[in-house]
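Bumping with the actual sequence this time:
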Amino acid sequence: MIKCNLSRIMGERRLKIADVARDTGINRGTITRIYNETATRIEIEAIDKLCEYLDIEVGELYEKVQKK
């Protein structure tokens, strides 16, 4: 299973979804789905923008975890 750490990262940095959407140009709905881990497909460009904006690597944003 793939786990997204966006909510944790944004929480640690006290970032709001609206701010990230405005600063990255990524649709707010897209960020919300990534944040809530309900997204079924994510454009590589969106992942790239998030990683660049947050100054992180893809492996910090997403990780593979064992199913529970």
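The tokens above came from a reply further down the thread. The chain has one domain: 2-64.
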